[in-house]
Amino acid sequence: MNDIKLHTIESAPEKSKPMLEQSVKDFGMLPNLHAAMAESPQMLEGYKVLHTLFGETSFDAEELTVVWQTINVEHGCHYCVPAHTGIAHMMKVSPELTEALRNQEAMPTEKLQVLQDTTLLVVRNRGVLSEQEVQTFYDAGYTSENLLNIVLGLAQKVMSNYTNHLAKTPVDDAFAQFAWEKKA
Predict the structure, then answer these.
(1) Is 58 exposed, middle or buried (CB count within 10 Å of its CB: 0-12, 13-18, 19+)?
(2) How far apart are CA 168 and CA 4, in angstroms?
(3) What is the mean pLDDT of residues 114-133?
(4) What is the distance between the alpha carbons of residues 24 and 118, in angstroms, rounded to a whole number?
(5) What's the CA gap between 106 and 72, in Å, rounded?
(6) Residue 39 and residue 37: Cα distance in Å, rounded?
(7) How far is 123 from 127, CA to CA, in rounded Å?
(8) How much is the pTM?
(9) Contact at 8 Å (CB) between 91 and 119?
(10) If 0-12 CB within 10 Å is exposed, 13-18 middle and 19+ buried, where does residue 183 land?
(11) What are phi and psi of 115, to 5 degrees?
(12) Above 70 in pLDDT, residue 1?
């Protein structure tokens, strides 16, 4: 039985209400992910903080999208893949890159391919990378800061992807056109 509720501002715990009000101001709507997370004000706050911090890293819009969507697809998140497709469009990321990520196809540049490969290694190997795998990442032009920021992005995505699995969060109407299902 799944009893994770999608809260409104009115039904949310008191500590979540100001954060949900801010979500509406930021997005022009209350994202269903935030509505689900509102049951735990600490979860909602933690997620919002990690989202802000990850967006402030030195990754550009394409790189942020590669990390987010690589993790979303790997985790099979029915909610985050469409949401981040819409976000990528808003960030002016090329539709070709977005579709390649959604369909688990090759990246358009070697540098982005290395970022995707390294992100997958971090996820699949729980952060255990060989010296050669780390060196390949550095040789592509990335730094130790970037490597740690993949972990930051992963922390954010674990919170959202797992919440969406548990809550069976419905995709927001704004992102319904980007519906996605994990390939078998």
Answers:
(1) exposed
(2) 9
(3) 98
(4) 34
(5) 16
(6) 5
(7) 7
(8) 0.95
(9) no
(10) exposed
(11) -65, -45
(12) no
Give the span between the Cα atoms of 7 and 1, in whole angstroms.
18
Give CA–CA dist 98/65, Å, rounded: 8
* Residue 74 near residue 123, CB atoms below 8 Å: yes
Dihedral sign (CA 113, 153, 120, 142): positive
Q: Rounded distance, CA 144 to CA 150, Å? A: 10
Q: What percent of the chain has pLDDT over 70?
A: 99
Angstrom distance (rounded) from CA 38 to CA 4: 10
What tens digit of pLDDT does each residue of 159-176 get? Answer: 999 999 999 999 999 999
Rounded Cα distance between 147 and 159, Å, is: 19
Residue 182: pLDDT over 90: no
In the structure encoding, which two tokens stand for residue 23, read together? Answer: 């979500």
